[in-house]
Amino acid sequence: MTSEQKINILLVDDDDVSAESVVRSLRKNAVDFPITLARDGVEALEILRSVHPHLSIEKPYLVLLDLNMPRMNGFEFLHEVRSDKNLHNSIIFVLTTSDADSDRVRAYEENIAGYLVKSSVGPQFSKLASLLESYRSTVSLPN
């Protein structure tokens, strides 16, 4: 995949401040990924399954997933995605406040691409922007 090609991002986070910080960081760092925001796992699944009344996402996409959310948390979402034959190969990065080893192990058991602790990704999520830009320019994703 070349750096000019788009990767769509589904940001799944119920914290408006955190979600806005991620969006601002990506835009500030000239990362031009189209971003769709889901407030929890239920809404994210609706978007991925193309049944949400207003929101959609096109392939290729990757998911930035918070773990602690209402209705359906990140672990429940991961289980649903990995159990769905149409979504099981989705690329998912966990982006969370939890630095607990038990959460990290549990998330990797669901085949995540990476586990990022919000406090460790730099001021205003600058390391996240760099990671995503590097990922886009080096990894070839299926459409």
Automatic annotation (TrEMBL):
UniProt keyword Disulfide bond, yes or no: no
InterPro entries: CheY-like_superfamily, Sig_transdc_resp-reg_receiver, TCS_response_regulator
Record keywords: Phosphoprotein
Gene3D superfamilies (alphabetical): 3.40.50.2300
Record-listed 4-aspartylphosphate modification sites: 66
SUPFAM superfamilies: CheY-like
One Pfam family, short name: Response_reg
PANTHER family noted in UniProt: RESPONSE REGULATOR RCP1 (PTHR44520:SF2), RESPONSE REGULATOR RCP1-RELATED (PTHR44520)
Segments forming domain Response regulatory: 8-133
Record organism: Cellvibrio fontiphilus
Listed name of the protein: Response regulator
